[in-house]
Design goal:
The protein is α/β, with parallel strands linked by helices. The chain has 11 helices and 8 strands.
């Protein structure tokens, strides 16, 4: 396994383009891999132009960094409104084109919340309140309809990506339609494609009250990529902290990844620890040292 670092944490609280300096910083830290993203759909047109994509691909090749994946945030992808759905599909097609032209074979889809008008901040606020109180749909078929639509949409995404030579990963988050490994397995079974897998985010899984090693065993070869950060197992705590600052047992994680045959990248995503270039270097170096030490104890070399 080799260490990587996502490109969007370089500026801490401002994870927006341009990403050329981020790529250079990741390379200078000695990482072997990185990922890129479009946090807003408009960036697919405004930033990821043909010329910029060409420049980014050349930069990645010159630094020797492997581009593990490209993440597109498309919150209206599951909309059942005809106009929104049409626009969302156009956004997805553009994201696939960008991913393909950048030279990766994975497009990562950030998961989606059930359509009841709440976002991550809303859920976190409600979850940490004395009583979780939110208005729910008064329709007994609500979840059945949501799930069937989700399977259809993700299936269509996988089919389109496959025809373009890409695999698809979904990245579950707490409170989302797919919020844990059991739901992810159900989605994989329903879609029925070998091209659908998981971006396993160690911290997000932990914050969903999952045992990290068991989550890995559940997903097995469907883990296509791993985002690495620590967590205290509490949604109210900072979600993405440096390995060693949370409660994840990293020797166990590394051993279990080896058990299921994972030999890809381990990409640091220390979002809640980085505020500037100095903390980017400090926290990533701490993470590198910690994970390599854990690898030594586990008998697993980490490049």
């Amino acid at each position: 396994m080799q260490l990587g670092c996502v490109s969007w944490v370089y500026r801490g609280a401002k994870p927006t383009p341009p990403f050329d300096e981020s790529i250079k910083a990741v390379s200078q830290m000695g990482f072997k891999a990185t990922s890129l993203w479009a946090p807003q759909p408009k960036l697919l047109d405004e930033y990821y132009t043909n010329s910029t994509v060409k420049e980014l691909r050349e930069l990645l090749e010159s630094t020797g960094l492997k581009l593990v994946g490209f993440t597109s945030i498309n919150s209206v992808l599951i909309s059942q409104d005809s106009e929104e759905s049409k626009r969302a599909w156009e956004i997805y097609q553009k994201a696939v084109d960008v991913a393909k032209n950048l030279g990766t074979d994975i497009i990562n889809i950030l998961g989606h919340f059930p359509p009841i008008g709440l976002n991550m901040m809303d859920y976190t606020r409600l979850w940490t309140a004395p009583v979780f109180k939110a208005k729910m749909p008064e329709n007994p078929d609500f979840w059945k309809n949501v799930w069937e639509n989700y399977v259809s949409v993700i299936g269509r995404c996988v089919d389109y990506a496959s025809k373009n030579g890409l695999r698809v990963t979904l990245e579950p988050h707490p409170f989302m339609i797919v919020s844990n490994m059991d739901a992810m397995l159900r989605l994989i079974d329903a879609v029925g494609s070998e091209s659908l897998g998981l971006t396993f985010d160690t911290a997000l899984s932990k914050s969903a009250d999952e045992i990290s090693e068991m989550a890995i065993l559940k997903m097995g070869r469907r883990i296509f990529n791993v985002h690495v950060s620590d967590n205290l197992g509490n949604i109210a705590s900072p979600l993405h902290v440096t390995p060693g600052r949370g409660s994840i047992y990293w020797e166990g994680v590394l051993k279990t990844l080896k058990t299921v045959g994972y030999d890809g990248s381990l990409e640091f995503e220390l979002t809640h620890m980085i505020s500037d270039e100095e903390t980017f270097r400090e926290e990533n170096q701490r993470a590198i040292d910690y994970l390599r030490d854990a690898g030594k104890r586990a008998g697993i070399p980490i490049e």
